[in-house]
Automatic annotation (TrEMBL):
Its cofactor is Zn(2+). GO terms for cellular component: cytoplasm. It comes from the Bacteria. GO terms for molecular function: dCMP deaminase activity; zinc ion binding. This is ComE operon protein 2. Keywords: Hydrolase, Metal-binding, Zinc.
Length: 187
């Protein structure tokens, strides 16, 4: 039995949250963790009870959707709403935080930012994090945690590749397809 590492578990949670995003411009999820416990989560979306970008289209001003509260801010505000301290906590985000979120993360006392994807990593955000002593670490989701059929799919792809190998004389094509399958399915 293989246990899921903590960073993979929390990052998977952020990827799940991202799937709840209502702004179509970018699906982002954020999970705030303290002492290996999830204390809050958020995703890109409108204020509670408001219309959603997925229904009405984004409200764009100067190239930004002004309807959306970012995932990181939503997670922090959930802590504010319920009175949960964020000092010394960690945050797991699917995308590197924007400048506004960067400042809010620092100001809330969060000490480590784990992110899965680089996203317009602003040099000023990097400076701010560094000066505030906030560590940023890239954690890509390497386990296929959020697909309940991943083992069956891996086995199926293996089977297809074996069959292909048996039936084809085109080694070049077989190798190319095998390489692609390995990169997509982490076989
Ligand atoms: Zn939007
Ligand atoms: Zn942001």
């Amino acid at each position: 039995m293989k246990r899921i590492p903590w960073d993979q578990y929390f990052m998977a949670q952020s990827h799940l949250l991202a799937m709840r995003s209502t702004c179509t411009r970018l699906m982002v999820g954020a999970t705030i963790v303290r002492d290996k416990r999830i204390i809050a989560g958020g995703y890109n979306g409108s204020v509670s009870g408001g219309v959603h970008c997925i229904d009405e289209g984004c409200y764009i001003i100067d190239g930004h959707c002004v309807r959306t509260i970012h995932a990181e801010a939503n997670a922090l505000l959930q802590c504010a709403k319920f009175g949960v301290p964020t000092d010394g906590a960690e945050i797991y985000v699917t995308h590197f935080p924007c400048l506004q979120c960067c400042k809010q993360i620092i100001q809330s006392g969060i000490k480590t930012v784990y992110y899965a994807k680089d996203y317009k990593n602003h040099p000023y955000a990097l400076d701010l994090f560094k000066n505030a002593g906030v560590e940023t670490r890239k954690v890509e989701l390497t386990e296929l945690l959020i697909d309940p059929n991943y083992q069956e799919k891996d086995a199926y792809i293996h089977h297809l590749l074996e069959e292909l190998k048996r039936q084809t004389n085109d080694q070049e094509m077989y190798q190319a397809l095998k390489t692609e399958a390995e990169s997509l399915f982490r076989l």
